[in-house]
Amino acid sequence: MNKHAIQQLLTKVKNNELSVEAALNELKDLPFKDLGFAKVDNHRDLRNGFPEVIYCAGKTASEVEAIMTEMLKQDNNILATRASKELYQQVKKIAPTAVYYERARLIMIEKEVIAKTKSKLLVVSGGTSDLAVAEEAALTASALGIKVERLYDVGVAGIHRLLGNLDYLNEANVIITVAGMEGALASVVAGLVDKPVIAVPTSVGYGSNFGGLAALLTMLNSCASGIGVVNIDNGFGAAYLASTIILQLEKARKEG
Amino acid sequence: MNKHAIQQLLTKVKNNELSVEAALNELKDLPFKDLGFAKVDNHRDLRNGFPEVIYCAGKTASEVEAIMTEMLKQDNNILATRASKELYQQVKKIAPTAVYYERARLIMIEKEVIAKTKSKLLVVSGGTSDLAVAEEAALTASALGIKVERLYDVGVAGIHRLLGNLDYLNEANVIITVAGMEGALASVVAGLVDKPVIAVPTSVGYGSNFGGLAALLTMLNSCASGIGVVNIDNGFGAAYLASTIILQLEKARKEG
Amino acid sequence: MNKHAIQQLLTKVKNNELSVEAALNELKDLPFKDLGFAKVDNHRDLRNGFPEVIYCAGKTASEVEAIMTEMLKQDNNILATRASKELYQQVKKIAPTAVYYERARLIMIEKEVIAKTKSKLLVVSGGTSDLAVAEEAALTASALGIKVERLYDVGVAGIHRLLGNLDYLNEANVIITVAGMEGALASVVAGLVDKPVIAVPTSVGYGSNFGGLAALLTMLNSCASGIGVVNIDNGFGAAYLASTIILQLEKARKEG
Amino acid sequence: MNKHAIQQLLTKVKNNELSVEAALNELKDLPFKDLGFAKVDNHRDLRNGFPEVIYCAGKTASEVEAIMTEMLKQDNNILATRASKELYQQVKKIAPTAVYYERARLIMIEKEVIAKTKSKLLVVSGGTSDLAVAEEAALTASALGIKVERLYDVGVAGIHRLLGNLDYLNEANVIITVAGMEGALASVVAGLVDKPVIAVPTSVGYGSNFGGLAALLTMLNSCASGIGVVNIDNGFGAAYLASTIILQLEKARKEG
Amino acid sequence: MNKHAIQQLLTKVKNNELSVEAALNELKDLPFKDLGFAKVDNHRDLRNGFPEVIYCAGKTASEVEAIMTEMLKQDNNILATRASKELYQQVKKIAPTAVYYERARLIMIEKEVIAKTKSKLLVVSGGTSDLAVAEEAALTASALGIKVERLYDVGVAGIHRLLGNLDYLNEANVIITVAGMEGALASVVAGLVDKPVIAVPTSVGYGSNFGGLAALLTMLNSCASGIGVVNIDNGFGAAYLASTIILQLEKARKEG
Amino acid sequence: MNKHAIQQLLTKVKNNELSVEAALNELKDLPFKDLGFAKVDNHRDLRNGFPEVIYCAGKTASEVEAIMTEMLKQDNNILATRASKELYQQVKKIAPTAVYYERARLIMIEKEVIAKTKSKLLVVSGGTSDLAVAEEAALTASALGIKVERLYDVGVAGIHRLLGNLDYLNEANVIITVAGMEGALASVVAGLVDKPVIAVPTSVGYGSNFGGLAALLTMLNSCASGIGVVNIDNGFGAAYLASTIILQLEKARKEG
Amino acid sequence: MNKHAIQQLLTKVKNNELSVEAALNELKDLPFKDLGFAKVDNHRDLRNGFPEVIYCAGKTASEVEAIMTEMLKQDNNILATRASKELYQQVKKIAPTAVYYERARLIMIEKEVIAKTKSKLLVVSGGTSDLAVAEEAALTASALGIKVERLYDVGVAGIHRLLGNLDYLNEANVIITVAGMEGALASVVAGLVDKPVIAVPTSVGYGSNFGGLAALLTMLNSCASGIGVVNIDNGFGAAYLASTIILQLEKARKEG
Amino acid sequence: MNKHAIQQLLTKVKNNELSVEAALNELKDLPFKDLGFAKVDNHRDLRNGFPEVIYCAGKTASEVEAIMTEMLKQDNNILATRASKELYQQVKKIAPTAVYYERARLIMIEKEVIAKTKSKLLVVSGGTSDLAVAEEAALTASALGIKVERLYDVGVAGIHRLLGNLDYLNEANVIITVAGMEGALASVVAGLVDKPVIAVPTSVGYGSNFGGLAALLTMLNSCASGIGVVNIDNGFGAAYLASTIILQLEKARKEG
């Protein structure tokens, strides 16, 4: 329809309904404003129910409310990340169907059910302390329409727990590993499979962990190849990256 | 064939050719040694010509030679990364068909031509100083059988160069962005597309660049989602991660 | 009038109203105390209404109050930065006309209206979370008598928002870019214009953002030239630097 | 003339010499490629002789040569930064008039004399060890057409040297301070004047200097306002930032 | 008994009660799940009363309660580390015999008395501020069945206090040194003895202590050999490492 | 008197009142315990009223109370550093004459008036935000019997304030400079005098100040010689170091 | 024999062969000089052949030669660490039986054969690039009389290699793990055993490895307990720590 | 004589030999240039032979030569620090009496013998690798006229070496401790004495030593009070600081 707008303009010029100068003027800045080239959204093309996302950290409650009010006018699902329980109480007033996932600090407002993908995402986590981030990843992915499996509490301190669940690894198309402390889980998982592994370091730990730096460096320096790292505690980002891969997979399934 | 080995063993037990005790003994440690469960190699299943890889940094020339001599007995292609020109001279004596890519510091020995994938990888880089890493990524991906396009010298200091080449971005399935200095390229690219972006910070820069730390932090903290980061200067790792995604795509194409 | 003081002293010596020894004594330490050479204030020379500034962080409420009481005896405008709402409540008792800008944490007391400059400052910011710092810059600049425009929420994750507003960039004489997360906005803006760009990294972000370090390094290492960086979250400092440039511009306009 | 191209295209549509579809096609990607909006170059508009710049670090000699050969076809002056003496020897073969400044590691090829600005830049430096960076700044600024003064070896260890030269500070429009070790010079200078101060930390020092980090942090945290900081050892960047300010000044002089 | 399971399976094959295919299937993943090879627990083999451990940091009270409820069904002792007083109140409801050590933040539930080892562990600490970590180490070791001595408040600022207690050092088999500030105690102790010294840096200090980094680096760089370092404030880890050594000693005593 | 103890012991041996073996036994560990060689306290030798010191940070109120109760049995003055107001309330109950200095967080209990030294210490500070640390230094020094002068709010942003008070610098024997932000004050002061300058970086600042790191590095890398640096915010340590110097001076005055 | 010296002295006093004063004088400083309390060397007590060690880094060749010449006068074995090949050439002139281990950079001079311990040390390493450090550890331990096994090239990228060699882990008394890159090997090994694990991070890696920092932090933050960490590349220190443990084991074997 | 200059000027005004305007003009900038207030040099007042100092690092040989040639015109002694052997060869041509201290990298040219102070400086160092820095300190102090004692190789790994030499500590007025690795020596020394201790961390070490950072942090965080720290490897700075203290002592001796 942007193309359409230019077409109309050109037709008007052709029909002498618009002078060359006037057309020139309209064209000058138009491409950036209206062509909408940025983020050609494959997701939305492919899938209904793909949500709008609000990152709540650093925004006041009234700012979040204002943004959400605007979004609620449309029919999109809404996903609010890094949301406190207090914020949820306030959101519920304007969106009574909103659901809150406390550990993952997510608010979800589902207006339209999103069909799940055929491709599968596995979220693997080390210890129970990593649960908040792992759930942020799993629930976000689910909200993005991804089929999600969970394999939790399989840290390398007891590697038999991971090895006893190789089927999970084998059946996934994409794997997210969530781990704090030293974050060695990502290396071990990537050493066992040959598929994309997204690594999320968490800030779980203390002392020389330096707020997740230890796990971050571990994942960036892994001796096992095939790992893409996201920011510390960035469960959302991992899920989003997974969704870009999986939606390519869904497209590939259709195209052959 | 490992399965086969266990099958034979069980058959022997069944046929009383082997005592239960003796079988038990053989079985005890076997799974780890021989089942070969680790790295169920989708790549090799899918594609002939998938190379063996040697990381040359920190190995002496004679160590590399010894490993390569062993590999040459088989029919696999061979890819040696971080290889100096001197090393190449020595390798050439035992592998006369070896080719050297100086800027990318790669040695390739191709025994079997690998068919290129249908899915496409785009390698985007900022400045000409990032060329070495960008080429490591592009050539590695190519050696792994990936169809590769290059879009170089499109740093954000002159953003029209990137915007004038949106077609490249739109046609790729996976994008690798290679950038030093402040590494902002990854954010801009990920803001323009909705597909997996693999970001490689390079050590190009000086002063408060701290050997690539600036670009690394930029990429990890990108305000644009959908970015998986690898280690500084790790062109190989980016290509390998891309290959895990693209081979999932190829499988998806087949499976539908 | 300092010159005048020395002149008087010399005249007294000449007229034998003061002995050489006594004059010598007075002169010895005088230059540093009284010549007032430091900060020859072009600002005040050029513009009435230029405010006195109090940096409130690390000062107790009673200390701020004491300083302000002193300042209120003169006719200058007063600008208090990093001021909490509680502090404002207290200030209001001694300065009932004081106005508080909550997001920017600024208190302003305007006794004299300051005429705006002909030159224009543009404050550009990435996300809504950067608002506090952007407003500290914009409001400070305004209090310093600068004509200010704002272009907010144009982060590089959706670069069309920035590109659709090139007019703003083209019409400014000086640009302040305020950005957290990875801070790539500064590079993109400086790549689009050829005028002084002042970059303010913000502490917005988490994990490997390390309290604004990521954005700071990005801005220092920008591949685009023409950027001067100030401290993390230092909206005031950016505005002040902008004012030194713009007041040079105003002088140049007058001088020709 | 880009405007002209669109005008021609529209006229052709109007005259039915081009179909709407064909025009649409040409227009689609055109703005980014051809409108040349990026870096509307005030410098070139204002001043002949403004040079093309090559950053030589991380480029091979043959790459620099190739770029320069291309540039030499046009009539622009050329400035090559971070150039080794060896590189200069090679450059001289294709550009016999090239001049080399060893301490500043700059190659200059002047085809057209650039008239100096009315506004004045002062380059102040701490110790003789900072000379290389100070000269990179001064010579670059000069090559960009700026009138440059130098005030060297006035480090704060002997503050009378700086105080004895206040006239230099008072007569400049923009000041660049270059200092290594602890970099306190920038604070002292900015405390004495009320004009834009560009601070360049140098890597001069040892131990806990950490390659210039000490001076960088000093300059970013200055208790004196009005300082814009550039990367460690970035004499070029400081000069370029100064030139964006000074060319605004020159424009202001003309416009009034 | 895992061995037993495989034996039964093989016997069934032998007796034709199970087909080779079915046996093969069962065997495939079995080793990792059931052989229980990981952590062949010498401790439990050697000593009754060896406790189960819960690391409480980052777990919600209800999560700790759930884990503990499960553990209480068995007869093992239980040790909960990094436990707040609030948590203890809650634990006491389900385990009335639980004891709380406030400074060490430990909860202990002793169901079975553990006999103390013949080998001796000495816990040495610098200042009274290090007490919390020192006690975490001493009490943990004690709960693990180790004979523990304490030598506190012998920091190097008054080295005669340490030198006056050499007997303690001489009689221990393993020494844990706990120290904050600059952590020099570990070096001095290791210089006085020729036995394993486990060094625990604490986060006691301020400023350039950087949360224990100073003591950590001191201990890693000690000019005295024979020091193994654990994470900052990791009293538990030090005690656990000591227990692995001491239980080897107990075994050696038995074996001769 | 320790000498005396050994003398007695030897005399007993001589007089056959004690066997050689028994004497040997007593001597073995004696030197470390009783010779009291450590910290031969010149201070106490020289000056009555020299206080005992308690560092309160990281100690519980009851621990401080216990230590103080013990000290109160003797006639020494007592100085408690890093003491909160709450702690003071509690201390007052057992030591009603205790005085609290809120900004400096010091509790002092003076039982005996300490005569002031002839040598003079000057405490110089940058901004009013550094007051807490400057006062910790000044009051501590005073409690240690040092004659103290203060020169506050003379930061380098307005260097005339420092230069207008050169007399203070000239009359002191030792100077403590306290400064946050970029900490340049130490360099400027040390550049003006030729006497020992003790530099205390403070944690005053934000962003890339990194909790005082900026000022710390500035002071360690000063281009002016003659500076000894103590830990960030360590006003006490600076005063103590000053007292070691000044008490040497007092001794030198006596000895000639 | 020190005891003996005091005994003689006391006897002389008793026999009036020495005055009390003279004895007192001799005793005063004696304990520190002569009691030889420091490093009561269990090693030498237990085992002949225990070597003297020279750390060659930072010493000139002539300094090493001087130290060695002195040592050669006694009958001890000598071990020189961090020795270059050039140094070895020089050493060989004065010690013709000296042997050089190039990869481990060790020189050994064995004058007396040292009997191996009953307890066993296992040195496990990740990749072939870690060989230098692993061999420094293994050869040092061997020189210290320890029975050493090696298990190399079992990095976690192919975890089946480690799992296939569990026997090695099970049979050792102490384990040294040597790993660079992300250093996850230590965690996996410590998760598999219940015996002391000494972890040596190596500087093998690049980019965000930061010279071994990544592996160091991994090892300090391991989610598996029972790990003592030594400095980056400190193979010697790991072996020495192992020897302190193993010699305690040997003593325990004797004592029962 | 500066006072004198002003006196003359005033007298001329008085005698009408100079107009008030002319005098005013001369006075305006004079104080900073000529009063010579900076660095009122107690040293030179007190002692003949006090040398001029050249810091050679970062200066070219011809720059050093130029500076020295200028200095040689006067009768001062000259001390050149961080001087390479090559530089010395060149210096010797213009100053044949120059002496070179290779380990300390110092060139000394003594024109006048400087009498040694009564006060004594002790330089204590840890290992032989710290010799270069220790000697830079000791020789510099000696060149500054200080009486210097040395106590080398008394690192804390064998603390009896230090304790056996307490007399050295007791007899000094000021102590410089030079130590690399973990730098614990400073803490132990400051714990033993009650006099000013100047601590010099050295860059001796590897791995997590981070070029001297470990020792630096140790010294800044010492639990023993009375330590002033200088930059890593800054032997010169330590000696200079010591000289400022000792010259105060000499003055105190005279004044009484």
UniProtKB/TrEMBL annotation, chains A, B, C, D, E, F, G, H:
One of its GO terms (molecular function) is hydrolase activity. Residues 119-251 form the PurE domain. GO terms for biological process: 'de novo' IMP biosynthetic process. It comes from the Bacteria. InterPro entries: P2CMN_synthase_LarB, PurE_dom. Pfam families: AIRC. PANTHER family: PHOSPHORIBOSYLAMINOIMIDAZOLE CARBOXYLASE-RELATED, SLL1489 PROTEIN. NCBIfam families: LarB. This is PurE domain-containing protein.
